[in-house]
Amino acid sequence: MEKMWAGRFEKASDKLADDFNSSIHFDSKMYKHDIRGSMEHAAMLCRAGIISAEELGSITAGLASILNDISSGELQLDMNAEDIHMFVEAELTRRIGDAGKKLHTARSRNDQVALDLRLYMRDEALSVVELLKKLVRAILEVAKANTETIMPGYTHLQRAQPITFAHHLLAYCMMFLRDVSRVLDAVLRMNYSPLGSCALAGTTYPTDRDSVALALGFDGITMNSIDGVSDRDFCVELEAAFSVIMMHLSRFSEEIILWSSWEFKFVELDDAYTTGSSIMPQKKNPDMAELVRGKCGRVYGDLMATLTMLKGLPLAYNKDMQEDKEAVFDSVETVKKCLEIFIPMIETMKPLPENMYAAAKRGFINATDLADYLTKRGVPFRSAYKTVGTVIGKCVKENKTLDEIPLDEYKQFSEVFDADLYEEISLETCIKKRISRGSTGYDSVKEQIAYVEAEL
Ligand code: ARG
Predict the structure, then answer these.
(1) Distance CA 229, CA 82 (A)
(2) Which residues in the chain are classed under CATH 1.10.275.10?
(3) Start-to-end Cα distance in the chain
(4) Which of 30, 46, 182, 302 allows an S-S link to 241, with CB 3.0 to 4.6 Å?
């Protein structure tokens, strides 16, 4: 196929160079956005008197038929084309003749690709937001069913203080809600149309960039044509937001992997989201959670690839920037796939409250509460802390829990101990007594549930 720019050249480019240069095998993902942008661009050209109504009619019909035929699979993409933009334009001219050659008036592939990528990223970002909301909803449902389920809360992965399973899960709801706002925030900044920036300097045609921007759902136009074609901040921002989502998912995955081990047995994953072993008949492996944890790395990698590609690039467009697409596509697709699998995995996960409670009983996670018991009866906190430490030393030696030490023995440690201490250090009381907002206390958890519901 003769190149669109063949006129200036004396010989054809090398086949290897063509293949190296071509991006159609990945940027064809944006064909819908490309065609939509072209339709609005053509409509503007007509409004501005640059093309006739008749030409617009055939361009629009031609583009619509191409859209239809690519979608149905009837029109095969030509892998020899340089990119999706060149392919669509060439196909349009093949179908409608000379009018097709007018489409690219007052436009360059530089602003065209900047536009397409923004349209694509906006769609994808919004579908990530929908998935995040579904995930928050799924986690919230499990939380609501487990407001009375007591488990050990950890620091350093050592049992620390009793919490409810609902409280623990709500922590993830907060993270994913922030992720929603992070993505939406990036979309707000991205939602300006670069179309009409042309190659870099704008155009001599009397174009109306604002009306195209409006028709394509943008909040306005990019105000500097050089920036319009050079900016890929929106890719970086969204990849960064996706990286944070993956980081959150990987932390949750790690916990689910731990929780479903025999060592914890706090949850059981549904058979549908686990796998067996090819050799060990007893195995039920949390592969989905492990894969999500693992895929976090590639999304970080995509972010790094884009940042590094952009580093030190002079203005305006450089071909380096063609490398943005595979990174953002991978980032988008990975985060979506991970969210899609995570949602049903959470929905079908079976919590095992008895095991959580049994774990909470051991590990002296009510030790802080026992110290508080003494301080509330006048003992300075440091002394109380030391006394309780000594009691725990005894428990460890005798393999007992704090509530298994009889009162007369407690009395030997401090006269302040009394019969009501047992009630005070029961796990239920430990939870109930946490009255600060945001805490694991029952009222606080109720407030958190209402908060998440309102945010959704
Ligand atoms: N395929 C190119 C990209 O993805 C499109 C823009 C090419 N512009 C140019 N002047 N060569 O970045």
Answers:
(1) 19
(2) 15-105
(3) 53
(4) 182
* Ligand 1 centroid, distance to 323 Cα (angstroms): 10
> What gap in Å lies between CA 77 and CA 69, rounded to an integer?
10
DSSP 197-234: -TTTT--SS---HHHHHHHTT-SSB-S-HHHHHH--HH
Q: Topology of domain 360-455, per CATH?
A: Ribonucleotide Reductase Protein R1; domain 1 (1.10.40)
Catalytic residue among 28, 250, 277, 444: 277
Angle at 203 between CA 199 and CA 205, to 5 degrees: 145
Q: Is the CB of 322 under 6 A from ligand 1?
A: yes
As given in the structure block, the two tokens for residue 73 are 């699979």
* Mean per-residue pLDDT of the chain: 96
How far apart are the CA of 282 and the centre of ligand 1, in A? 54
Q: Whose CA is nearest to atom 2 of ligand 1?
A: 322
Against a cut of 0.85, is the pTM above it? yes
Domain 110-146+165-358 has CATH 1.20.200.10: yes
CATH 3.50.50.60, domain 15-105, yes or no = no
